[in-house]
Each structure stands twice: as C-alpha cells, then as structure tokens.
Amino acid sequence: MKVLVPVKRVVDYNVKVRVKPDQSGVDLANVKMSMNPFDEIAVEEAVRLKEAGTVEEIVVVSIGPEKAQDQIRQALAMGADRGLLITAEGEVESLAVAKLLKAVCEEEKPDVVLLGKQAIDDDRNQTGQMLAALMGWSQGTFASKVEKDGDKLHVTREVDGGLQTIALSLPAVVTTDLRLNEPRYASLPNIMKAKKKPLDKKAASEFGVDLTPRLETLKVTEPPKREAGIKVESVEELVDKLKNEAGVL
Amino acid sequence: MTALVIAEHDGEHLSDATAKTVTAATKLGGDVHVLVAGPDAIAQAASKLGGVTKVLHAGDDAYAKQLAEPMAALIVGLAGDYDAILAPAGTDGKNFLPRVAALLDVMQISAITGVEGPDTFLRPIYAGNAVATVKSSDAKKVITVQATAFEAPSGEGSAPVEPVGEGVELPSVSDFVAEELTHSDRPELQGAKIVISGGRALGSTENFEEYIFPIADKIGAAVGASRAAVDAGYVPNDYQVGQTGKVVAPDLYIAVGISGAIQHLAGMKDSKVIVAINKDEEAPIFSVADYGLVADLFEALPKLKDALGA
Ligand SMILES: Cc1cc2nc3c(=O)[nH]c(=O)nc-3n(C[C@H](O)[C@H](O)[C@H](O)COP(=O)(O)OP(=O)(O)OC[C@H]3O[C@@H](n4cnc5c(N)ncnc54)[C@H](O)[C@@H]3O)c2cc1C
Ligand SMILES: Nc1ncnc2c1ncn2[C@@H]1O[C@H](COP(=O)(O)O)[C@@H](O)[C@H]1O
Questions:
Q1: Which atom of ligand 2 has the smallest separation from the CA of A42?
Q2: Which domains does chain B have, with CATH numbers?
Q3: Which of A81, A85, A140, B290 is a plausible cystine mate for A229, CB 3.0–4.6 Å?
Q4: How far apart are CA B12 and CA A63, in angstroms?
Q5: How near does any CA of chain A get to the CA of B155, in Å?
C-alpha cells in the first residue's frame, strides 16, 4: 500500500500561548513550533506498517509556511520516504486544506491517508473527515488500532462509550488518536539521511483551489480567569466547606 | 430560519448533550427540528424536548451504529430545508458532521461554546487558552456544539414525529465489526453533577478501585481520569478528560493526583467548584482549584470516604 500522511506545523504542545493585547490573535512570535502531536502518531503508524511489510511508500505533505519543511524533515527522519511542501502564507482553513489534499490524492493515488484527529492549535477535528467526503472514501476516525485484513482496513476507534471496530474498503482515510502508538525519536543517522530524501515544493496557488476563508475571526480573547481558591488543612475542613460553603455535597 | 439538530444517542437513551444542543440551536433565532437516526423510542424522547417543533425519524438499521458515510448521506439529503445543522461535539458528531460540511462545501464551526448571533459564534482554541469569536460567511451553518456550555431547554414539548430516510442511496464503504463498550452503573461522565478524576499518581487499576470508586459511589459521581492514567491502562480510554478527551463542567470536580497540564485543564476548568488533592503544593492544578488539599492521596482518600459518612 501507499500511504499519504499530512502533517501540520503548530505551536508546541508545551507552550501556553498568550492572547495579543489588541485581540487580533495569539502571540506566535518566538514561540517553539513542532509537528502536531497527532500527526507524529500518524507518521509513526505509517512507518510501523512499512516495517511490517504492509506499506511500500510513505509520502508526507504539509501545507504552510516555508518553515514547515522542518516538520516534513522530521517525518522523513522517522522513516517516511519523500515529502511535499505546499506553501501558503497565513491561515488555510480545514476545508481548503482538504481540497488541496484532494488534489494531492488525485496525483499520488494513495491507498490510505493517515491524518491526526485534531490540530492542537485550532482544535477543529475535521480535515480528515472532509477529505474522505470530497474523495467519496470511507473514514475511520480516532483510531487506536489499524490492521490490514485482506482487502479491508480494520480500524478500532475511541468513541464516547468505549471502543468500536469498523472495516473500511480502500482507499480510506484514517485519523489517529493518542493511544495508537508512541512515536519514536529520530536517530541522528536518520536525521542526516533525511536531509537527502526528496522534498518537493509547490505553491498552494498552483492548485486552482479557492483558499478564501469562510470564517472571519472577529477577535480572540482570554478565557474567563479562574481565581485560585484556598488551601484547606484537612479532609474534615474540605468536606465542611463543600457542604456548608459551596453547597455541592 | 430553521435549524436541524442531529440527536446523539447510544441506541437506548437520548443524550443530555442533545438537549443542550437544542438550546444552542434555539439561540440562532428560528425553528428547531431534531433528526433521530435510531430507534423510535428515542424519536419520542426527542419530541418532548422544549423548543423543538418537529422530529424527523430515520429508523433504518443502516444508521444504527451512526457510521459516518450513511449518516452524512442522510443529513445531506435533508440539508436543503435547513439554514443550520448542529450536532453535539461528541465522537459521533465529530465523526459525521465534517463529512456533511465538506459535501455541502461549508467550513464547519467546531465545538462552539457561545452563540453571538445567527452567524457569529464563540469557540475555544489552543486547548482553551484563547477564545475566538468567528463569523461564518457560508450560506448554511454546520456546527458542532460543546454541550457543557449550554443549559438544557426548559419546558416540555410535544413535537410531531415524521419518518424520513426512505430511499436514500447509502454508500457501502464501511461496515461495523464490533464494539467494546464500557459498562458502568455510575452516571455518565458528561452529564454528571459530580466528577472525581484520578491521575498518574493512582498507580494502578486496583488503586482506582480501592480509592476512587468507593468515593464516587458514595456521592453519586462519575469517574474521570487524566491522559496519563488512561495511557497507563488504569482505566478505559473513554474516562479521559481534557483537550482531546471529554469536556466536562459538573457542579463539583475533584482532581486527585493530577498535576493540571493545560490539556487536562481544557476539559474541566469550567466546572463550578474544583477540588484538588495533590501532594505537591506547587502543582498547577491548585491555580484553578477552589479548594486545595496538599496531601498524599493514599492517606486523604480513605479519610474522605469516612468523612462523607454512610
Ligand atoms: C496532544 C496531547 C493531548 C493531550 N490531551 C490530554 C487530555 O485530553 N487530557 C489529559 O489529562 N492530558 C492530556 N495530555 C497529557 C498532558 O499533557 C499531561 O501529560 C497529563 O495530563 C498528565 O497527567 P497526570 O496529571 O495524571 O500526571 P502527572 O503530570 O505525572 O501528575 C501526577 C501528579 O500526581 C501528584 N502525586 C504523585 N503522587 C501523589 C500522591 N501519593 N498523592 C497525591 N498526589 C500525588 C504529583 O505531585 C503530580 O502533580 C495531552 C498531551 C498531548 C501531547
Ligand atoms: N496545514 C496543514 N497541512 C498538513 N496537514 C494538515 C494541515 N491542517 C490540518 N492537517 C491535517 O489534518 C489533521 C486535523 O486537523 P484539524 O481538522 O485542523 O484539527 C491534522 O492532524 C493534520 O494531519
């Protein structure tokens, strides 16, 4: 099988972002950027499938600024075969990302597209589902297990009530959940090797996709602040406060 | 202006989140219809929700497991009559609604926590560290709703129930194989008035059973967990509270042996009263706690159980 893995460059998950005073957005100047954690899981899964002999080729694609090359290189160092950077300045919404990925799918003809379930910057959780819709493909979201079974892909999904397993016809779109695997760190030799792997570049404008945003961000504000409360000295005091002060017991 | 709310259910019960999503839909300013793809009893339950003027019932078995492809086909077939389509931001809605949005060439507005007007919404971004006010220029709005941010509608309705979904051509690209549902007699995490969650510090499944569960049962609480506790296999995945797990906002949230990473806070910081029990007085969880107890959980929880009485 051939696998396509879209990866997004996002604020590192350890960074606590600050809202800009003029409410135009969050302050991203000099903030550490990384590969979206769910996308690392997607890359790892693709590499494992390749190591198991189920997958022959892994293509990584990112839509974003020039610097998103770093994230593609990281994926190549983890074991992906080649990369494609689709350059775009500013925000590209999920629907436009899905349309660009559709164009890539038509060109690359992957059997499976493995994406993260959610980008941790915008927390939208929709790109994979949108791509599946545009391609008319099956989808297995929030995957905690992916197995090839004959000509089907069995995907175990983390759902509100527990776990659900579905069988998908190929080609299919799969989005990853946290417990699918634990991504590896790229070794130094592999990081060196990744520098020689092919990385193509195209401008988003070359794809004939309308990138005009449908959502306008009017403002970005801080969430209501929670005041830290008090420390209680004992369990007895805690229960007393919960009963008589907060009235929640 | 008419809005369609897609009911969330587990085959037996209509979820609380559906009722709260109806409230969000009402704020758009028009009629609210509900689509139930599932058993008739759930359509009947939906018809009693305050503010609902019509229930569409698709009883075909093809929808029973809420698989994305048939659900999207059903909803897209009905979309022509609606200006807005909403679903609770649970794992079902998150699965099928973006598919609907793409088929309608609409940008979905995910997990809204407020309605400012028929086209303007609030939604948390960056694990809830910021709140964006967004205005949609799409003719049809496709929206998932963070139900904890809305109250259930008041009053009781008696909306007529109308069958739909006959003759919809359903894609057959995916099949249900199996499910492993977590069974619990405790309240459901997202609807519970009290939630007690355990973190990595619990150390094992046995310790959850010995220290957390008895207290939960005493005060009628649902049990939640941090990602660290779920990843370690102490409790099932559907216990996870946080940015990428479930969002809860109970009257009382008790965090035990949880450090308070931003990803965890994103799932519980809108709880009315927060209690933290942690042996590290510097733990970030204390910065959002109304009542903090610096203690070893293995000493504090048995005492708490006793103090709660019989
Ligand atoms: C992409 C991504 C998504 C994530 N999503 C989520 C999410 O949805 N939900 C989530 O919870 N996390 C999530 N995380 C993980 C998050 O960053 C933290 O790693 C996690 O929440 C830590 O769990 P914890 O507090 O149980 O463990 P720790 O951070 O290890 O904290 C354990 C705490 O227990 C205390 N302790 C230890 N022993 C005792 C004792 N005997 N008595 C009392 N206290 C004790 C310690 O002082 C410490 O504060 C996510 C991470 C990533 C990268
Ligand atoms: N700009 C992008 N470039 C590459 N992949 C992306 C991009 N945006 C989103 N994705 C993929 O879609 C997933 C879900 O993102 P979202 O729907 O925005 O939460 C991510 O985990 C990525 O795998």
A1: 23
A2: 3-163 (3.40.50.620), 189-309 (3.40.50.1220)
A3: B290
A4: 42
A5: 25
